[in-house]
Each structure stands twice: as structure tokens, then as C-alpha cells.
Design goal:
This protein is mainly alpha-helical and 269 residues long. The protein has a single domain, classed as Up-down Bundle (Four Helix Bundle (Hemerythrin (Met), subunit A)), CATH 1.20.120.1760. The protein has 8 helices and 2 strands, in the order ααααβααβαα. It has a two-stranded antiparallel sheet. α3 packs antiparallel against α4, α3 packs parallel to α5 and α5 packs across α8. 33% of the residues are buried. About 3% of the residues have low confidence.
Length: 269
């Protein structure tokens, strides 16, 4: 019963209560975002090798946040959206700005247009990936993943600038072609293997563990060249597989045509 001057109490909706966020996986996402922002700052200051290394660090952190969320059962819609926004900074804006400052600035409109093609390709790639969750085949990515595209550009800066001391402005046409290739590959319909069908919880032979250990040892011998070589091969693998599928499809059509022709000759005879 309300008193004469007592205002009515508002109804409390349990669904409208403020919800918190899971701290652990979002810490990894924030660290990846910081690495991407750090790469932009270092690229603006002319420290291109450090910027490229920061992008690779962002790749490692980006690969950990989702796995940590699944292992700790702390997946959330907020975490997925936050991860996409962080990816846009680390693998979209950061590589395009770093590559522009390193090599493409002197090309005028062609230079910033190439950087924009890459940046827009990363945004479209992430948007398409988010809309295809739960629908697309998990074994394959449609289009080059944005972290791999970022590694393609960052690795080129890391190797050529860091190991060989190459001035990016002297090879601006090569850089321009690689940048446009990476941007268009992200929005293509080419299939790239996702490596998501590997079950890390399954027992493996002892020699498999030795191979993993050997892989880490090889990478530590020359991180920049080996990592960049891997991502160059990965960026080309989708197109190689596409050509193999086209050849197999053509061979099947030819085989069907030959069998149909042989059957028609038998009927005539």
C-alpha cells in the first residue's frame, strides 16, 4: 500500500541488469589492440622494423584470445565484437599505414589508393567472416585471412628493411603489387586452409612432438625470413589449390565426354 506522497517504486527487470565482461580473454584482445596501435605509432616515427614485429606479436595474441575463451568457457558476444574491432586496427589499419609510410608515400595517389584497397579489403573480410560464422565450412577460409595478409606486408618490411636494409621507396612498385594482391585476396572467393581441424587434445605419436620442437628451433634461427616465407607460401596456396581443382574438374569433364562418346559408338555399332 502506497502512502499519499510516496512515489511508485520502479519495476526491476532482471534482464536489464548490467552485465560484466570476462576479463581474461579480453586482456589478450586488448594486448593485441595495443600491439597494433604501437605498430602505427612506430611506423609514423620511421621505426618500420619494430612496427612489423609488433604486428606479428598482435597475430600471436589474436590467436590466443579465442582459444583462452574456449578453454575457460568465457565466450561472449562482446568478446567477439571486441576481437573484430581489434583485428581491424591490428591487421587492417596498422599494416596499411606502415606500408604506406615505408614505401608508398612517394607514389602519390597510387600509393595511398593501394593502402586503402588493403584497408578496405581487411574491413570487408572481417565483416564477411562475422556474417558466415556457423555457416561456412570451418576447414576453409573464404578469402585470405586478415592476419595472414598483415603478415605478408609486415614480413616484407621486416625482412627487406631489417635484414637487408632496403629502402622501401626504391621498390615501391613491388610493394604496390603485393599490397593490392593482399587486399584483393582478402575479398576473393578463393579457399584457404584454416588448420582448424587439428585436434590439440588428441594424443599424437612421439615423433610429432619432436617435429613441433624442431619447427620452433628452425624459426628461432631466422624468425623474419622463415615466418615471411611461410606466409608467402600460404598466400599462394589458395590459388594453387584453385588451379588444381580446375584441372581436376576439366579432367573429369573430359573423362565423362570420352565415356559418353564411347557409349554412343557402341550403340551405333
Amino acid at each position: 500500500m502506497l502512502l499519499p506522497h510516496e512515489p511508485p517504486k520502479p519495476l526491476i527487470n532482471a534482464g536489464a541488469r548490467r552485465r560484466g565482461i570476462y576479463l581474461l580473454p579480453n586482456l589478450f584482445t586488448t594486448a593485441a589492440l595495443f600491439a597494433g596501435f604501437f605498430a602505427i605509432v612506430q611506423g609514423m616515427n620511421g621505426h618500420f622494423e619494430m612496427a612489423a614485429e609488433a604486428i606479428f606479436i598482435a597475430m600471436v595474441l589474436d590467436g590466443l584470445d579465442g582459444r583462452v575463451a574456449r578453454l575457460t568457457r568465457t565466450q561472449s558476444a562482446f568478446g567477439a565484437e571486441y576481437d573484430s574491432l581489434a583485428d581491424m586496427v591490428s591487421f587492417g589499419a596498422a599494416p596499411s599505414l606502415v606500408i604506406y609510410e615505408w614505401s608508398l608515400r612517394g607514389m602519390g595517389k597510387l600509393g595511398w589508393l593501394a593502402a586503402f584497397v588493403y584497408c578496405a579489403g581487411a574491413a570487408l573480410r572481417l565483416a564477411r567472416f562475422n556474417t558466415q560464422l556457423g555457416v561456412a565450412d570451418k576447414r576453409w577460409f573464404t578469402g585470405l585471412p586478415s592476419p595472414a595478409a598483415a603478415a605478408l606486408l609486415a614480413g616484407m618490411v621486416w625482412v627487406l628493411q631489417g635484414d637487408y636494409g632496403v629502402d622501401g621507396t626504391r621498390i615501391h612498385w613491388l610493394v604496390w603489387c603485393v599490397t593490392v594482391f593482399a587486399g584483393l585476396s582478402m575479398v576473393s572467393n578463393t579457399k584457404f586452409y584454416s588448420f582448424k581441424d587439428f585436434n590439440l587434445r588428441r594424443s599424437v605419436p612421439f615423433w610429432a612432438a619432436l617435429l613441433v620442437l624442431l619447427g620452433f628451433v628452425v624459426i628461432t634461427l631466422d624468425q623474419a625470413r622463415i615466418l615471411w616465407s611461410f606466409f608467402v607460401g600460404y598466400a599462394c596456396s589458395g590459388y594453387v589449390l584453385w588451379m588444381v581443382r580446375q584441372l581436376q574438374r576439366r579432367n573429369r569433364k573430359q573423362a565423362v565426354g570420352r565415356s559418353a562418346g564411347a557409349n554412343s559408338k557402341e550403340e551405333e555399332s
